[in-house]
Amino acid sequence: MSKIKRIFLIVLVTIGLTSCDVLQQMSQMANFAKCTFDFNSVNSVEMLGLNLRKGMTRSDLNVNQAIALTRALVNKSLPVTFNVNLDVTNPNSSPASMTKMDYILTLNDKRVIATTLDQTISVPANASNTVTIPVSTDLFQLFGGESADAIVNLAFKLAGASSDPVNVGIKIKPYITVGGQQLAYPDYITLNKVLQ
After folding, report:
1. What is the 3-state secondary structure (H, E, C) of 52-87?
2. How many angstroms separate the CA atoms of 155 and 177, rounded?
3. Digit-coded pLDDT (tens) for 74-89
4. Three-class SS state of 10
């Protein structure tokens, strides 16, 4: 086989493989569009570096933790981190995947964060997968117009304490990468959960 024929064959195979890869990615994005999203839970809540156990209240804090909380409130700063978990169910007979996801999170209709989860998420055929979205915010900055008690109660409510309900809203927009280009889902998918 001549050198030119060999190069031509390599180019054709490369184009064919790239086309197959693009078609597979487009298929997985189309599958992702048919997936259902459900709000699963909020967990791994930390306030001032303290892991808030499920159902924990302010009265469960020890003396040092109570002093740290009081100091934070005097300084008008209450940093918290937590995870929002979403269940993604793929009803298709082939896998669904995305390469990243934009998301906007709200608490009681106040925007907490708008950012991107920059990781590939795959859901096997006829299966479910849980996507964990990390959140970090300062509740005092977010709800500064409310009482210090209400703000502290909100942190504990995220961890499952009984207090006023909290509405957690999230909007997500999945992406795939095709031929080096980011393609977005046409619109945001909106989910809400009221923590009772």
Report:
1. CCCCCCHHHCCHHHHHHHHHHHHCCCCEEEEEEEEE
2. 37
3. 999 999 999 999 999 9
4. helix
